[in-house]
Amino acid sequence: MSQIPNSPPEQWHPSDATVPGTCSTCLLHGTGVRLVHYADKASAAPRDTLVYSAWIINDSGEDLTDVTLVLRSFTNAGMEDLKYATGPSVLTLGPMSAGGETELVFTYVVTESDQRHAGELISAMAVQAVTASGAKLWDEYDAITPICFPT
Predict the structure, then answer these.
(1) pLDDT tens, 46-60?
(2) Against a cut of 0.70, is the pTM above it?
């Protein structure tokens, strides 16, 4: 069976960045750009201010363009749509050199409603970028913070 030029092989997987001619039109998860996303506290109570860090790391070996942090969702256990108290006004970072990294910081003040729902806060983010050779990269990470109860 012959292959169409520049088409992926039959057994190709999107995480296989070594397949020639296949990366220019596919999003590669966790290959070359990484997102590390976490809160500054292991758990939180009402009126606590959480500081969320979103580190974007370029370990692709190439310069990246169109580096963008995507805010996917921020909810509590009641599935309420939460809003960060503060955060960067711009989520598109533009170019990032090989080996570069950037931290974006967001804050949130835990509410009584968050505690009434019990459970946890879930901050879901993703990063997308394009390599100099045209490969589209992405990664995602959820920061999960349990809500504690007063003792």
Answers:
(1) 999 999 999 999 998
(2) yes
